[in-house]
Amino acid sequence: MNTPETPDTEHPEVLTPPVAESAPPAEPAPVEPAPQEATPVVDAILETVVLPAATDAGAGETGGEWQELLDRLNGWLGEGQVAELWQQSQRPLKALAAALALLLVLRLLGSVLGALDGVPLLPRLLQLVGLIWIGLYSSRNLVRSDSRQQLLAKAEGVWSSVVGRAD
User: Is residue 58 part of a domain?
Assistant: First the structure.
């Protein structure tokens, strides 16, 4: 029986393919490159930035790009646009900084509370302290009618100062 490792000796033509007479390879026809068309982006860049070539007279200069950048930056700073831009963006930047600070404080507070939650018996003890405080506060401020009225008046005064309405 023939296995893949042992070749078939009865049919040697199966092992070697017949060799065909080949013609000499034809030389490939020269391929001409397609004409390159300039894209609109490249045209816009070429129209926007025109820099003169460095001359041999300025041996210390390596090119005109850096000087052109400095001239444009100095012109922009000289026009006073920086102060105007700062005035326009000052309020949104402060709001963004406040939001980032709030996010940082909340992350830190979450980390501290997570660490406290890992201490055995501490969460239950804090719940008990909170219940005791609520009981004492309500017995002082919510049992009698006159203390309730004072508490409500105080809350309304705080609310009106926050909202900005004066009665």
Answer: no
Compute the distance between CA of residue 129 and CA of residue 143 in angstroms, rounded to an integer.
Answer: 21
Q: Are 84 and 124 found together in one domain?
A: no
Please report which confidence band the pLDDT of residue 16 belongs to, taking 50, 70 and 90 as the band edges: low
Q: Is residue 45 part of a domain?
A: no
25 Cα distance to chain centroid: 58
pLDDT above 70 covers what percent of the chain?
A: 60
Per the structure, the count of domains in the chain is: 2
pTM of the model: 0.37
- Residue 155: which domain range? 120-159
Residues 6+ apart with CB under 8 A from 54: 61, 62, 63, 64
Give the pLDDT confidence of 110-158 residue by residue, as tens digits.
Answer: 999 999 999 999 999 999 999 999 999 999 988 999 999 999 999 999 9
In this structure, are 126 and 148 located in the same domain?
yes
Contact indicator for 2, 14 with CB cutoff of 8 Å? no
Residue listed under structure tokens 């850096």: 66
C-alpha 118/C-alpha 113 separation (Å) is 9
CA distances from 11 to 14, 15, 18 (A): 6, 8, 13
Task: Report yes or no on 105 lying in a domain.
Answer: yes
